[in-house]
Amino acid sequence: MLLSCKKFFPPSDRNKDPILQVLLKHIDSSKPGNVLEISSGTGQHVSHFASRFPLLTFQPSEVDTTLFDSIRSYSLEVETKNIRDPIKIDASTDYNTWDLIITRGICM
């Protein structure tokens, strides 16, 4: 039996729907694209958002690599399978040091 590594943060759970409502107003869900989530934390948000935007590919990131297993656990539950494996990004550093390929404003 595989144990879930999901961590649960109540504030993330409380604010995921209000944040989603803002995203729905500003993101065209009919077009494919890529989304870089900065500071993904537990993965609660990215998994909630990804299922509502199946044409978008989400790239979670987090400086605390101990949260990667939680992000992966939440991601595995998303039926759309549009969440990449988390990457380490320290948002307090210059973005030019991040290990990203940026093409036409799209992060890969």
TrEMBL record:
Name the record gives this protein: Methyltransferase-like 26
Family, similarity comment: Belongs to the UPF0585 family.
PANTHER family according to UniProt: UPF0585 PROTEIN CG18661
InterPro entries (alphabetical): DUF938, SAM-dependent_MTases_sf
SUPFAM superfamilies hit by this protein: S-adenosyl-L-methionine-dependent methyltransferases
Domain of life: Eukaryota
One Pfam family this sequence matches: DUF938
N-terminal signal peptide: none
